[in-house]
Amino acid sequence: MTLEPFVILLFANIFRRALAKTPENAQWRNALWALMGFTLILIGIDIILDKNFIKWISKIILLALLCLPFVSDRFKHYKSVILALLPYAILSTIADFAKAFTPSLYDSINGLFDTALTFSAIWMVAMLIISSRQRKALQKERRKAELEEKEKERMWALKQELEVQVMERTAEINKQKEELENTLVELKTTQNQLIQQEKMASLGELTAGIAHEIQNPLNFVNNFSDVSIELLNEMEEELKAGHKEDAIAIAADIKQNLQKISTHGQRADSIVKGMLQHSRSATGDKEPTDINALADEYLRLSYHGLRAKDKTFNATLETNYDESIGKIEVIPQDIGRVFLNLFNNAFYAVTEKKKLQADGDYKPVVSVTTIKKKHQVIIKVSDNGIGIPKKAADKIYQPFFTTKPTGEGTGLGLSMSYDIIRKGHNGEIKVASVEGEFTEFTIILPIK
Amino acid sequence: MKILVVDDEADVESLFRQRFRKEIKNHEIEFHFELSAEGAVAYLERTSSEVVLILSDINMPGMSGLNLLSYIRDTYKSPSPIVMMITAYGDQEKYDQAIKLGANDFLTKPLDFHSLKEKLKKTENDGQNIGS
User: Fold this and answer.
1) Domain limits of chain A?
2) Which of A19, A441, B22, B97 is most exposed, with minimal Cβ within 10 Å?
3) What does the alpha-carbon distance between residue A153 and residue A226 come to, in Å, rounded to a whole number?
4) Which ipTM value was assigned to this complex?
5) What is the pLDDT of residue B132?
6) What is the pLDDT averaged over residues A130-136?
7) Of A264, A350, A347, A332, whose CA–CA distance to A295 is shortest?
8) Backbone angles phi, psi at A251, to 5 degrees
9) Cα dist. A15→A68, A73, A396, A398, B12 in Å?
């Protein structure tokens, strides 16, 4: 009875199981099945005949089997298995050779061979167990890798899906952005319209003042024209009577009258021009401007505008103009707008205070002061009116903020003034106020 | 007849002086001009008895013509000068107010000098009638 066929069976089975059930491996599997069948026959023959050649055939087959991992890549992971078998294979072969060719020697060291063979058998079993474990671990690893691969694929699919979603969202956001931009354009248009409306509204408040301011010079133009006609008639009479001296005196008067007609005509002209400038939507250019004259013009317009509304109203206008200012570079219609807003507010403040004071002791005063400094011109507009409540103080420059009743103020006046001074002229606008006492606006304009 | 004219427009003076050049020449009328109600008050304090008639604008910065009117009516009771108010806004409200405060007449801008002359003549005649 020989052991080798069983070892062949064992290893053939290990190799067979190593093969995955794929068509490419079918040939190898069949071959291994065949080998195992053949080995079983060998075992059968061995049992019946107990011939020595079977051992040798088995040894050759076993050697061939041991070469498999080096021949085919399919079994390359099984090199360690060979390591398990190797000591036993070598030892048993040596023992068999010894037995066959030098029986005397073999007999003398038989015990040694038996011991070595036993150890090599133990080694084989131990190694097989270890390598089986290793293989299992490897398989586990491989399965893990496969799982990871699958996970990767899943992630990739997810990533693709996400990218599609991101694209959709981006398109959506872009659409929203466009909508917002359109809205912004609309808002800007509306804002411009509102600013224009504010200009027209403040012009409306001015109408009465303008009417008064134009009516006066027109009266003079008409009256001086009439008087001049009378004077010419008188002059004719004097000349006819031969009173040359008197005629010359009358001529001088007529000359003076024509001068006055011209002056008052120009006065009316400048008021109309100012009104047109005020309503013009486009912002003009900076030009040398007499800031005192501009302030005075708008102070009068504003005052008479208020007078037209409230006929009982009266205020003292105090003006302190620094004549050394001369002309400074500003956009006259814009600064005019600022003056108009400040004066209108000042007159509004004193009117409101007068309404509150029943005893009539209150004397409304609105004043404007100009001061020239080295690099700046300071303009102060103050009134002794109702003042600005503390809670409203930090909101006065906000667009649409107003404390006036609905319909009386657009809430754009000071906001526009702020923009004109800060952005348009690089200047500053400040306010000092005590509620119920006074308000003073200070404009600082830089000059070169 | 001495007339005080109160108006914040300076050219009112030369206009009056030309319109009434004959009357001034013939010493029928003597004019004095003030640019503000405050100035008029000061002038009246100096020469109240000489002034027979006051022509005052209503719309003036500071003390208004109506303030001046009530001041005159309060201060100069006898003899109280004739006061005519002038304004650019010829409305009923102001007219009523001026009359209530004791204005003798009410004129609207632009001044009609022919009717003003008529009125002055009538006033002078009435005054003479009263005096005689």
Assistant:
1) 4-156, 283-448
2) B22
3) 105
4) 0.78
5) 33
6) 83
7) A332
8) -60, -40
9) 9, 12, 94, 89, 133
- The amino acid occupying position A384 is N
CA-nearest residue to B61 within chain A is A316
* Rounded-to-10 torsion of CA B42, B43, B44, B46: 90
Q: Name the minimum distance, in Å, from the CA of A194 to any CA of chain B.
A: 32
Q: Mind listing the domains of chain B with CATH numbers?
A: 2-131 (3.40.50.2300)
Residues with Cβ < 8 Å from A92, sequence gap 6 or more? A3, A4, A59, A117, A120
Report the pLDDT averaged over residues B85-103.
79
Percentage of chain A with pLDDT > 90?
31
Reported as a single tens digit per residue, the pLDDT across A346-387 is: 998 998 888 888 666 888 899 999 999 989 999 999 999 999
pLDDT interval class at A139 (50, 70, 90): confident
Using CB atoms, pick whichever of A222, A264, A311 lies closest to residue B110: A222
What pLDDT, on a 0 to 100 scale, did the predictor assign at position A239?
Answer: 92
Q: How far apart are CA A397 and CA A400, in angstroms?
A: 9
Kindly report which listed range (A84-93, A395-404, B28-37) carries the lowest average pLDDT score: A395-404
Indicate the angle between helix axes A4-18 and A79-101, nearest 10 degrees: 160
How high is the pLDDT of residue B6?
93
| Interval A265-316: pLDDT, tens | 888 887 777 677 666 655 678 888 899 999 998 898 888 877 777 767 778 8
Nearest-Cα distance to chain B for A371, in Å, is: 23
* CATH class entry, domain A283-448: alpha beta
Whether the predicted pLDDT of B129 surpasses 50: no
Please tell me which of the candidates B18, B64, B91 has its beta carbon nearest to residue A227. B18
Taking the CA of residue B131 and the nearest CA in chain A, the distance in Å comes to 34
Looking at residues A436-442, what average pLDDT do you find? 93
Kind and range of the H or E element at B30?
Answer: strand B30-34
Q: What is the residue type of A39?
A: T
- Residues of A in CB contact (< 8 Å) with B are 212, 215-216, 218-220, 222-224, 226-227, 231, 253, 256-257, 260, 264, 303-304, 307-308, 311-312, 314-317
**pLDDT (tens digit per residue) in A16-75:** 887 777 787 888 888 888 888 988 888 888 888 777 777 788 888 888 888 888 877 777
- Could A231 and B18 be called an inter-chain contact, meaning their C-beta atoms sit closer than 8 Å? yes
